[in-house]
Amino acid sequence: MTDPRLTLMEAIATRKFVTARYNGNTITLAPHMLFERHGDLVVSAMNPAKARRSDEEPGLGQFKLAGLSSMELLNEHFEPLPSYDGTPPRSDDSLILSV
Fold first, then answer.
1. Positions of the region Disordered (predicted)?
2. pTM higher than 0.85 for the full model?
3. DSSP 8-state code for residue 80
4. What is the CA radius of gyration of the chain?
5. Phi then psi for 48, rounded to 5 degrees?
6. Do residues 66 and 40 touch, judged by C-beta distance below 8 A?
7. Are 73 and 12 in contact (CB under 8 A)?
8. Who's near 82: CB < 8 A, 6+ residues apart?
9. Coil, strand, or helix at residue 35?
10. What phi and psi, each to the nearest 5 degrees, are found at residue 45?
11. Structural domains in the chain?
């Protein structure tokens, strides 16, 4: 079994989508950043399947790595969101890797 941290780091470095189980559902994510918050690893990622209003721009959700399972790297690339600036969400978050 592949370490989900390594899968996620490869996805960020190569700008590839991943699939994972989250709250009992399989989701596809475009991971933009991996950071540490209070000792937990967290990924900021866009969920392209998330329902949005027609005038709402896609945004990044935050997912604790411990809550994601069965992570797989897809052979499909994504472009980072135009509004993405690479800054961790909170000043006390520690950046590990970013697109």
1. 79-99
2. yes
3. P
4. 13
5. -65, -20
6. yes
7. no
8. none
9. strand
10. -145, 150
11. 1-50+58-78 (2.30.30)
d(CA 46, CA 48): 6
DSSP β-ladder status, 16-22 and 61-64 = unpaired
- Amino acid at site 59: G
- Which residues neighbour 43 within 8 Å (Cβ) at sequence distance 6 or greater? 8, 29, 31, 33, 34, 62, 63, 65, 68
Rounded CA separation 22/94 (Å) = 23
Residues 35-72 pLDDT 10s: 999 999 999 999 998 777 766 778 899 999 999 999 99
52 three-state secondary structure: coil
pLDDT band at 2 (very low <50, low <70, confident <90, very high): confident
**Tokens coding 89:** 């969400």
For residue 4, give Cα distances in angstroms to 9, 10, 41, 67, 96: 8, 10, 11, 11, 14
The pair of three-digit structure tokens given for residue 53, joined into one six-digit string? 């209003």
Helices (H), 4-93: 4-14
User: Can you tell me the distance from the alpha carbon of 23 to that of 55, in angstroms, rounded to the nearest whole number?
Assistant: 27
How is residue 25 written in tokens?
């559902």
